[in-house]
Amino acid sequence: EKLCVEEKAGVSDTVASLEENQICTTPGEKRFRNSSTQKLHQHNHTGEKPYSCGQCEKTFKDSSSLKSHQLIHSGEKPYSCGQCEKRFKDYSGLKRHQLIHSSEKPYTCGQCEKRFKDYSGLKRHQLIHSGEKPYTCGQCEKRFKDSSGLKRHQLIHSCEKPYSCGQCEKRFKDYSGLKRHQLIHSSEKPYSCGQCEKRFKDYSGLKRHQLIHSGEKPYTCGQCEKRFKDSSGLKRHQLIHSGEKPYSCSQCEKRFKDSSGLKRHQLIHSSEKPYSCGQCEKRFKGSYGLKSHQRIHTGEKPYSCGQCEKRFKGSSGLKSHQRIHTGEKPYSCGQCEKRFKDSSGLKSHQQNHTGEKPYSCGQCEKRFKDSSGLKSHQQIHTGEKPYSCGQCEKTFKDSSSLKSHQLIHSGEKPYSCGQCEKRFKGSPGLKSHQRIHSGEKPYSCGQCEKRFKDSSGLKSHQQNHSGEK
User: Fold this and answer.
1) How far apart are CA 293 and CA 315, in angstroms?
2) In a 3-state reduction of DSSP, which class is residue 255?
3) DSSP characters for 43-70?
4) Cα–Cα dist 45/297, whole Å
């Protein structure tokens, strides 16, 4: 009996010792089930990373992290999905993927009831409500909501691009960027919209598309209350208020509001056009240019105006069109305060002040203010008329001439005067008419300074000076 008591006392002492050893000694006294879990936790405080990769010398806090990392070198993906046979490096990646098939979203936000497939997605979302950015860059003090955002940002300072494509050797800062790029080579689009069956290369592309059907704009600007479909659109917009242009070109020091603007600009220096059309082999600098071009072949016009149901190939065309209804002219000239519906109209106008004509024809050296003017001119040399009318087979040099012609068949007059409701087939006719109301005469004769409402009146007048008939 004495021995039994002593044994019990010994067991109690051992349990007490284990319990004491398995309490973290830092403030908070976090408790652990066993000593190995406690040791792993203590590495958070010490910063110790005792496990190193034999191939790249990267170090890790625990053996499981090391094993996950080593799969990058081996390319091994031991976990496969039973429904689509897609393979994954780790079990957690497989579990996240399987939620795509089940459409289950078990995690709910307590503030807005939005649902998520995994806990990490919920945590990232909750930072929108709190505005918390707990992760700070040690070099520029910029703050981030999550560690992945911080890591991606830190690669800007290091210029490191550790992930390379096996087919074209293009390099990327993160694995997700590499994966998105590899879909260019495979043409795989695994994500499909349940409402219109349009397919996408990545889940984020699908999510952005689905907002077209729902019309939802959950992101609001705190300064002007304008709403946006995604956070990237909101961030780009907010730079209008701040005027910040954090991205600069290393070759000409021109600055940009976002990385996509910088990338598009850098292609000017490289002349690289990595995106090619599968139907006519025309090449483009960016994926957006390729998509817009492909709609010429398909005839697809996915963007429609809510007021007149006119359809457009791209969102920029729709936005520009909608300003006809609203009368909005957000772009103003700094020299004469004339206002324009779009930036291209402003740029074209500004060249009236500067006289600049940066585009020259390679055959006759005639110079033009913009690339569209040059392209239209070059067809004089080639005789090319690629745009044909589907009703009478008449061909045209450019799409605007074709559109003007097609109004003959339809009889449509979509442009109306706001003062007298007279209607016109094209915007030039409307503009010329509006000068009757305004009395504006923007065309002046260089010899006698007489002014005219339109260019045809000026040309007719100039023949009086030249004697030409």
Assistant:
1) 13
2) strand
3) HHHH----EE-TTT--EESSHHHHHHHH
4) 60
Strand partners, 339: 332
Q: Which residues, listed in sequence order, are joined to residue 332 by a DSSP beta bridge?
A: 339
d(CA 39, CA 24): 9
Q: Which of 309, 325, 286 shows the shortest CA–CA distance to 418?
A: 325
Residue type, 115: R
Nearest to 435 by CA among 412, 451, 411: 451
**pLDDT of the chain, 469 residues: tens digit per residue:** 333 334 334 434 433 443 444 556 555 566 767 777 777 777 767 778 888 898 887 888 888 888 878 888 887 888 888 888 788 888 888 887 877 787 778 889 988 888 888 887 888 888 888 888 888 888 888 888 888 788 878 877 877 788 888 888 788 877 878 887 887 787 778 888 888 878 887 787 888 888 888 878 888 888 888 888 888 788 888 888 887 888 888 888 888 877 878 877 887 787 778 888 888 888 887 777 888 888 888 888 888 888 887 888 888 888 888 888 888 888 888 888 888 888 878 887 888 788 788 888 888 888 887 777 888 888 888 888 888 888 888 888 877 788 888 888 888 888 888 888 888 877 778 888 888 888 888 888 888 888 888 888 888 898 888 776 5
Kind plus residue range of the DSSP H or E element containing 316:
helix 315-326
Compute CA 431 distance to the chain's CA centroid, rounded to the nearest angstrom.
34
Residue type, 448: C
Contact 206/190 with Cβ under 8 angstroms? Answer: no
- List Cα–Cα distances, 183 to 189, 193, 200, 224, in angstroms: 8, 18, 10, 38
Contacts with 89 (C-beta within 8 Å, 6 or more apart), sequence order: 68, 71, 72, 76, 77, 78, 79
Look at residues 15, 60, 61 and name the one whose alpha carbon lies nearest to residue 42. 61
